[in-house]
Specification:
Elements: H1 9-29, H2 38-44, H3 46-56, H4 61-70, H5 75-87, E1 104-109, H6 142-154, H7 172-176, H8 205-214, H9 217-231, E2 237-251, E3 257-273, E4 285-293, H10 297-310, H11 322-328, H12 331-339, H13 346-377
Antiparallel strand pairs: 1-2, 2-3, 3-4
Helix pairs in contact: 2-4, 3-4, 3-5, 4-5, 8-10, 9-10
Length: about 375
């Protein structure tokens, strides 16, 4: 009598996973729609592309668009995919610190001052638009998009157009008056690398800002909002938010500075009032700072709020606690921990069930013994 050997559990698992992936891909394709080109994603979904790049910690718009398409628009999944890709890349150089004073500004606003040197530059924004559904998008085609772009271009007065410019910082005006207190008076100023050094609290400011730059946007917005509502002690005024491109330089093997290109970033500098103390009765202002890839002004502003809140020290509120903020805004880790609950846990759960059933049986046995004793006494 002959029997066919059953396949190894690993082989079965691999086949099941492959089948599940095929079904997931079929779900995306079965609608009969035209696949979205990566170039179209980059051009029309720049906000989510910028978010994915920032949270993955990798400036690569095309790869971010590819990850987003692969994840069917799930930003958390796309971030994990892009971070995994980033982890296999060889690090050949360490760039010089970027100089945001040399940023070619596309957008620049200040809530603290009405008039700023160089003027306010609204640039691309929907801050002053009504958040109503635009039904025109339902019938938009390549022809209508080209017509709209042509109409916009025709409406420009090229004689009055000015090239992208660099501007000094608005907060430098306050520094010149001695009204801003330095943020790093008592902190370590060495630049940490959070991708190569373990987390140890208290976390230095350079590491905190790196963590916030890669943090999940919604998570840091929730914590920053809690700080604004009194659970973190910071409700700032925006000294300046700017969006633009900054040059990236490295030093080659011969010691020469090389210009690699430029990246688009968002920078926010928040101004907060500091409470007067008896030992320091002179009032002053403090700066909260945020910098992230692409145009993500919400994230940059929230980074500044949490930067300022975590400098207060202590654990009086979630937004103040370094450990709470750093651990609970790490989107990739949070996503992984939550989704790990979907993985098989049959053995552990069966063990828990056995323990609970045994405990229930012991209780029922005790109750039966008590009932028998009571009936015999009566």
């Amino acid at each position: 009598m002959f029997s066919t050997p059953s396949p190894a559990p690993v082989q079965v698992t691999q086949k099941v996973i492959a089948a599940a992936e095929r079904v997931a891909r079929f779900e995306r394709l079965r609608r009969g729609t035209t696949p979205i080109a990566i170039a179209s994603l980059r051009g029309q979904f720049r906000a989510v592309i910028d978010q994915v790049m920032g949270e993955a910690g990798l400036y690569a718009p095309e790869h971010a668009a590819l990850a987003l398409a692969q994840a069917e628009g799930d930003t958390h999944e796309a971030v994990v995919i892009l971070r995994s890709f980033r982890a296999i890349l060889v690090r050949r150089y360490t760039s010089a610190v970027i100089d945001t004073t040399g940023m070619f500004v596309e957008r620049r606003i200040s809530s603290a001052f009405r008039e700023i040197p160089g003027g306010q530059i609204l640039g691309p924004t929907r801050d002053y638009s009504q958040r109503l559904l635009d039904a025109r998008l339902a019938t938009e085609t390549a022809a209508t998009a080209d017509a709209a772009a042509t109409a916009f271009d025709a409406g420009l007065d090229r004689k009055t157009l000015k090239p992208l410019r660099t501007f000094g910082k608005v907060t430098s005006l306050l520094r010149a008056e001695g009204l801003l207190r330095p943020a790093t008076e008592d902190e370590e100023t060495r630049v940490h690398d959070i991708t190569r050094e373990p987390i140890r609290f208290p976390f230095p400011r350079s590491a905190r800002l790196q963590s916030l730059a890669r943090a999940e946007t919604g998570a840091i917005m929730a914590l920053a909002y809690s700080g604004m509502r009194g659970q973190g002690g910071d409700h700032p005024t925006i000294g300046e938010v700017r969006v633009g491109r900054v040059a990236v330089r490295v030093t080659d093997a011969r010691g020469r500075s090389r210009h690699l290109g430029s990246v688009r970033v968002t920078e926010a500098e928040n101004i907060s009032k500091i409470k007067v103390k008896k030992k320091d009765p002179v009032p002053y202002m403090s700066l909260g700072y945020g910098l992230c890839f692409g145009q993500n002004e919400t994230k940059a502003i929230c980074m500044g709020i949490l930067d300022r809140s975590m400098r207060l020290g202590g654990d009086g509120a979630p937004a103040i606690s370094q450990e709470f903020v750093i651990y609970h805004t790490e989107g990739a880790d949070s996503w992984g921990s939550v989704n790990s609950l979907k993985l098989p846990a049959h053995v552990e759960f069966a063990s828990d069930l056995n323990l609970i059933r045994a405990a229930v049986e012991r209780k029922l046995a005790r109750d039966a013994d008590k009932a028998a004793a009571t009936s015999s006494q009566s």
